[in-house]
Acireductone dioxygenase (Catenaria anguillulae PL171), 184 residues
Amino acid sequence: MVRAYFYDNIADVDPREPHIKPDSADIPLSELAKLGVLYWRHDVSSESAYLPQVDAICKERNYSSRDVIIVSPDKLPNYEEKIKIFFDEHLHEDEEIRFILEGSGYFDVRNKQDEWIRIHLDAGDMIILPAGIYHRFVSDSNNYIKAMRLFKENPNWIALSRTKPETEQVPTRAEYLSSIQDAA
Ligand SMILES: CSCCC(=O)/C(O)=C/O
Ligand SMILES: [Fe+2]
């Protein structure tokens, strides 16, 4: 079940640990929605339980293809290289949809104050990170997550690292900031 909270920013602790900021309340889904982060929960007990809902979301948002990724040391080719890319703070020019089929892990997103919000997802959770939001992904201490990824016909979801100054200049970033500006 999803849980969102402020990240404690303690650098010398493994990022796969929970990193819950002490004395801070959990963050409701309504606050995530103000950042453009959308969430659904589906029944993953069988394909027939969730596929109609996934199909409906694909139709509504023009997603034409999908695949499944397993992030675990023994299943993901080039594991070390990939997890570094996932955990490097980045944005995409398309939204990122992930539907967790098995296991669990953390998506961290930046809020308006540029603080990290950590979102813990497990099987049944589906999330959309809007185009232009800075984020990163890391497994939790179980080191296993299986997720469905949904794509538009010509997806543009190259990870643009925040460490590169030009990333801040992509039009998608300005569009994203403007889209969340009025959300109280
Ligand atoms: C559990 S999906 C792996 C992370 C990922 O696909 C991504 O793009 C993170 O930003
Ligand atoms: Fe990403």
Residues 90, 92, 96, 135, 159 surround fe (ii) ion (ligand 2) (CB under 6 Å). The chain has one domain: 3-174. The chain is about 20% helix and 30% strand.
